[in-house]
Design the sequence.
């Protein structure tokens, strides 16, 4: 069983002796502590780095506000951060929402410089070759990604995706830590599982802002985010702050005026190219019968 050592000062009363040593207490580590121990082992002994999310201008650093359109640039930036376990990103982690997005591009061991392909292989290598013990009995909440080519490819099943958000949602298929009792869908963490559960609860749900009625909470919240909460964020230029009527126009402005990288999404059924995800989705539904 793993424990955390806690030092406390002795009580200051008339009976305490000068120079008395502090009292040493031990607290049993909880599940989050064990996951963070695992993350520390990975980051301390390899060149793997953490991604906060994919923002409007690129991939965000977990430890500062820098964004990079090329995840390789973010990786090089992250390798120069020190004391990351003192950062708010780490300190604010909670077990229900715990999900670490780990960049394992060109993965190698920091101890012996051996090149390693998969994250699991790194963990076995650290244990077998360097006697570094990893908490193996946990369901993994550390999700690996690799950015070695122009295409976003799942590291597990090698399926190709047109954007990082869809790839991240796909990873729930491979990290089934929480299972929906109704449809057997799997999810990385408890929070995502709970949000999914709302899809199965049918009723009357009214928008908190305009009163529009929906038959489940997911549709209600999606409407509120798109129309009343996030519309200004999605339609605001990340460079100059100008606002646009929709996300597509905003991105066209960022490409034309600020040199942002154009969006190019490809239909992998017929290889037709589109400049936004919405057009691709309509095309797939219309011509490839992937959804009725």
Sequence:
């Amino acid at each position: 069983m793993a424990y955390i050592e806690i030092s406390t000062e002795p009580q200051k009363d008339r009976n305490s002796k000068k120079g008395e040593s502090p009292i040493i207490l031990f607290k049993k580590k909880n599940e989050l502590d064990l996951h963070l121990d695992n993350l520390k082992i990975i980051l301390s002994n390899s060149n793997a780095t953490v991604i906060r999310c994919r923002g409007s201008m690129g991939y965000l650093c977990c430890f500062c506000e820098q964004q990079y359109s090329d995840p390789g640039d973010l990786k090089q930036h992250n390798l120069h951060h020190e004391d990351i376990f003192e950062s708010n990103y780490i300190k604010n982690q909670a077990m229900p929402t715990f999900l670490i997005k780990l960049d394992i591009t060109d993965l190698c061991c920091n101890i012996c410089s051996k090149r390693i392909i998969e994250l699991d292989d790194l963990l076995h290598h650290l244990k077998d070759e360097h006697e570094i013990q990893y908490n193996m009995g946990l369901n993994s909440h550390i999700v690996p990604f690799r950015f070695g080519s122009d295409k976003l490819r799942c590291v597990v099943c090698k399926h190709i995706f047109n954007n990082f958000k869809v790839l991240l949602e796909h990873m729930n298929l491979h990290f089934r830590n929480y299972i929906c009792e109704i449809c057997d869908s799997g999810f990385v963490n408890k929070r995502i599982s709970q949000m999914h559960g709302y899809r199965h609860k049918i009723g009357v749900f009214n928008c908190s802002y305009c009163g529009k009625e929906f038959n489940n909470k997911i549709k209600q919240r999606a409407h509120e985010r798109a129309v009343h909460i996030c519309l200004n964020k999605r339609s605001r230029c990340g460079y100059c702050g100008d606002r646009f009527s929709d996300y597509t126009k905003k991105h066209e402005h960022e490409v034309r005026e600020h040199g942002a990288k154009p969006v190019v999404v490809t239909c992998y059924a017929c290889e037709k190219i589109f400049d936004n995800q919405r057009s691709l989705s309509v095309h797939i539904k219309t011509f490839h019968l992937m959804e009725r």
